[in-house]
Amino acid sequence: MAELDGKKVAFLLTDGFEDSELTSPWGAVTDAGAQARLISPADGTVTGKNGHEQKVDQDVADADASDFDALVLPGGVVNADHLRMDQDAVAFAKAFFDASKPVSVICHGAWVLVEADVVKGRTLTSYPSLRTDLRNAGATWVDQQVTVDHGLVSSRTPDDLPAFNAKTVEEIAEGRHG
């Protein structure tokens, strides 16, 4: 795996996230040397749909994408649905695209990217039920374990986490994508 020493990675999520889609990539980036921070509109802690609890490091309203090298968006229907309705969360995600920084998204997390209007002309995958949403937003949707498009890493489900994690670490190591 690539070395991520000195890199700061934001994980944007709220209650109802898919537990393994937080814990597995979090472990991958921290094992590679990055500092991970949980950014959320929720206060205190967030709870996954299967009960994993984790402390929130920073409120999304106070977070600045310029303080981070990359963004990871875990899935979970409730998590993604709540985030896409939060203006600060959507703006935070969009700022990574504006700065050409790596973004990794899995499962339903792509709803946040649709709301941020950053998928037009991009190729990505997601949980299959988002296919029409992504196509309507101008993306090319593919059914693959992992897809990479100029620093945007996407995967479908927790089954894809090994490939998702490897590509996430690789793209963060590469840095900004023009």
Automatic annotation (TrEMBL):
Keywords: Glutamine amidotransferase. Residues 7-171 form the DJ-1/PfpI domain. It comes from the Bacteria. NCBIfam families: PfpI (TIGR01382). Belongs to the peptidase C56 family. This is Type 1 glutamine amidotransferase. It comes from Microbacterium tenebrionis.
